[in-house]
Design brief:
single chain, mainly beta, four-stranded antiparallel sheet, two-stranded antiparallel ribbon, 39% strand
Length: 95
């Protein structure tokens, strides 16, 4: 749903299961992480009210799907978080 401040109305834009909405710099589109089946980044064009796929994430590690943003050029970015999923042993030496 999008809210139009000129008309004070909500507009239904479509459906799906999305996360991490990020507006483009020009405000004409929203980038979303589509988690409704095939993991992918999609772009929602506000003027045409349509979704278009940007890039598939099917071969990207599960831990890297936690956030979607845009760099200064408008390219999608992901965070690769390997925090505790790749730690098999940790030895702590206290002085």
């Amino acid at each position: 749903m999008l809210y139009d401040f000129k008309t004070w109305q909500w507009q239904k834009t479509g459906g799906g299961i999305f996360q991490f909405n990020t507006w483009s710099r020009d405000g004409r589109s929203i980038y979303l992480l589509d988690v409704s089946g095939v993991f992918q980044i999609v772009r929602f064009d506000v003027a045409s009210n349509k979704l278009e796929p940007v890039v598939s994430l099917k071969d990207v590690e599960q831990g890297a799907r936690g956030w979607v943003g845009l760099d200064e050029a408008g390219n999608p970015m992901l965070v690769l978080d390997k925090s505790i999923t790749e730690v098999y042993r940790l030895d702590l030496q206290v002085p």
